[in-house]
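Re: weekly structure request thread

Next one in the queue (378 aa):
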Amino acid sequence: MQTLRPASIADLASTLRDAGASGKSIAIGGAFSKQAMGGPIAAADVTISTAALNRVLEYDPRDLTISVEAGLPYADLTRLLAEHRQMIPLDPPYAAQSTAGGVVAANCSGPRRRLYGAVRDCIIGMKFVTVDGEVAGSGGMVVKNVAGLDMAKIMVGSFGTLAAIAVVNFKTQPAPETTRTFLFENLDLAGVLTRRDAILKGVLQPAAIDMLSPAAALCLGRKGWILAVEAGGTAETVARYARELDNFEPVYGRAATEWWEAIREFTPAFLKAHPGGAVVRVSTTLQGIRQVLEQDPTVAAVVRAGNGLCYLYTESFSQAARLLNGDGRRVIEFAALEDKADRVLWPTPGSDFVIMERVKEMFDPHRLLNRGRLYGRI
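Done, posted below.
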């Protein structure tokens, strides 16, 4: 099937309007780099890509804001900001292939989420196009602007099931003067958690606190349980981290960059090495991390140890399904397309799902957009 690539917001609006008026089902995305994520899109009559909407619309580094079209490659956005020592610290997987709109639509974040927040915390405005061709706006280009922001938040993590994101306005962050990575290895899970707790109770608050199980650490050439910390700030601040984490191994320069790249891209690398594999995302409390990891200590796990997000990596879909346990905080986040068809990915969505259904009815009453993309539920 031919993929339509509108090159302007007006073209995107007319393309959606024509398809919607004809009652055609629509598959919409950017670079379609995260097809293993979420649910598989049901067979569609029309496929639309926003990849040709790839312009930087407005950027004044002094304002710490930037407005870009949804199809701008996320790697290009990152490079542009880096030239001005700025960043949008989301650390999404598939970063080299993703578009800015795709990162937002899939609600992707990574290790530095603990300090800087998730996608919703980085957005100050948005334009999106509904299935009937209407262009809607939310927020603006001022960091303190909150008018209409909730509409933009609804689009985050919607996987294109509500509307097509056309423009995203981000707030940027100054890059720290210097950064350093510290690694702590231990054969005992309790020992690593004790170190994590001490950091969380301390005065200094790192950008990232991640934990790897032994199986995950082995993938990166390490042994045992690993606690990884990224600290940033002035030279004096980083020096204090070094003093307080004197029993951690410091990692510098390119080695530190490669470490965090490997963490960020752990999911793509794992699925490439295990084509039949799957990833279960578990949202839990800081105290609940231990129980999640003890359920199956042999599973490769990468944990945002400062906020409770756990990613469990299995070599088969059936193994991932056994880890769900009917818990609404668990979902199969990634799996091969052929493995996800007609499978339960999100067994217990919870009471909020009723609201999600109502929002879907409001934006796309005929259910034409990205059918099944939201974990097979919407």
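The longest strand covers residues 178-186. Residues 268-340 form a domain with the Alpha-Beta Plaits fold (CATH 3.30.70).
Next request, please.
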